[in-house]
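Prompt: Have a read of the protein record below and flag anything odd:
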Amino acid sequence: SRGLGDVYKRQAIPVAGGPLSILFETVLSAPIDKRRQEWLSSLGIAIEELTKKVDGLSPEALSGNEAFISVALQATQIALRNHLQEKIAALKNAIINTVLEKSIDENKALIFTRIIDEITPLHIMVLTFLNKPENYEKELQAKARPTFTHYPNNISVFEEYYPELKSSSSLVEQVIKELYAKGFVFVESIHSGKGRVTTQFGQEFLAFISSTDKA
């Protein structure tokens, strides 16, 4: 009987031996295999480190953790479609935090993992900034000493900290609108607000995709 791999190949290569087959074999096959190997190797190392640091955590225990298995499978599918290291890191952290945060709702974990697939590193960067803009302001103030610079709102801090994005203001605004639509921030424009503007949902998402020293 044919397995899932055969089904996938039939769907991916509808004309066996034709141009699509040649394209897959010569252009896509090797990079896909490389991504799979790199992802599984990196994830395996991270999980091995966890089992050494967390009491009672073993490969056997993980094999029976349905939430971990579901998130890991979903994250693996997403990882194979991405090359951006920020997203790869977020996916790996999502899996690790699913293991560490035993109280996390499985539905929320799967939703957060799906959202990683939908957003870009710019979304993550902007959301991280809006979660604690005061940290970025303090860093700018430290660099400016002994001169004091007043930053009246978040946009003034953001543009000073990321001058390379001043010419991409329309793109940043689109990112804010999308973060707002996902319920991650209270504002629809980076020109609005001073200080933290992330929702509880947005803060939970950032915690889910961030590295942790709890292990």
